[in-house]
Amino acid sequence: MKISAILWDYDGTLVNSVKKNIEVTKEVLKNFIPDLNNNLPKALTSVENYEEANYKYKNWRELYKFAYGLTDEQIDDAGKLWSPYQLKDTTLPDMFDKMDQVVKKLSNIKQGICSQNCSKNIYNTLKYYNVEKYFHSIIGYEDISNTEQKPNPMGFLKCVEKLDIPLGDSTLVYIGNHQEDTIFGKNAEEFYKSQGYNTKVICISASYSGNTPRDWNVKPDFTAYLTTDIFDIINKILND
């Protein structure tokens, strides 16, 4: 089976950005909760609590509403602050073990990124790890509207369009660490089919970041327990 493109999530998939995201979230929330340091939400008190909350809620909007107590209007404003605060915090997240090798080994296939992080922030991190040349499309939070964020497939569609690949009978792979990433990929597949394309989207869960897809209502097609599993899974798909 030929794979036309591999699309990646960023946070929790390519890099372990939990510690940075906790600090950025705190700075964003201070705009709405002035005494945040004295009333720190449980989700921000440790890496473990942050990850638990992140996987508990469907998307970042639910996280900000139920874990941090923001109103819908405040959440809209917080979304606008995310990219500037990400760029302001120059801390570089760790790339997952051997991920640079995996990305390089897959360089014969076009690769892109669909994320709710800031596209410039993503690029800066990729450049630091010398892997930016392997990604030909990066779609971040600011590249689509608030109403078209994951699991709406718009980011996926834009990323594929930028990669300039023919659809038709194409097979695309999406790799993410959250149930919403799997839903995101399947929503894209449904959209393509509604437009008359026989496009298949295969979803891989990045479980090396700590998620448990066996508990998800929408299951991925494959699960990678190690970063190197991704390369093996891609080879399995290619040889089907």
Highlighted features:
240 residues, alpha/beta, Rossmann fold, 6-stranded parallel β-sheet, 9 helices, 8 strands
Short summary:
InterPro entries: HAD-like_hydrolase_sf, HAD-like_sf, HAD_2, HAD_sf, PGP-like_dom2. This is Pyrophosphatase PpaX. This protein folds into 2 domains: 5-16 and 94-239, HAD superfamily/HAD-like (Rossmann fold, 3-Layer(aba) Sandwich); 18-88.
Can you give a write-up of this model?
The chain has 240 residues and is an alpha/beta fold. The chain has 2 domains: 5-16 and 94-239, Rossmann fold (3-Layer(aba) Sandwich); 18-88. Helices cover 43% and strands 13% of the residues. The protein has helices at residues 18-29, 47-56, 60-67, 72-88, 99-105, 119-128, 154-163, 179-194, 227-239; strands spanning 5-8, 15-16, 94-95, 110-114, 137-139, 171-176, 200-206, 222-224. Strands 5-4-1-6-7-8 form a 6-stranded parallel β-sheet, sandwiched between helices. α8 (179-194) links the parallel β6 (171-176) and β7. α1 (18-29) packs across α4 (72-88). The radius of gyration is 17 Å and the shape is globular. The N and C termini lie close together (6 Å). The model has no long low-confidence stretch (mean pLDDT 94). One of its GO terms (molecular function) is inorganic diphosphate phosphatase activity. Its EC number is 3.6.1.1. This is Pyrophosphatase PpaX. Pfam families: HAD_2. Keywords: Hydrolase.
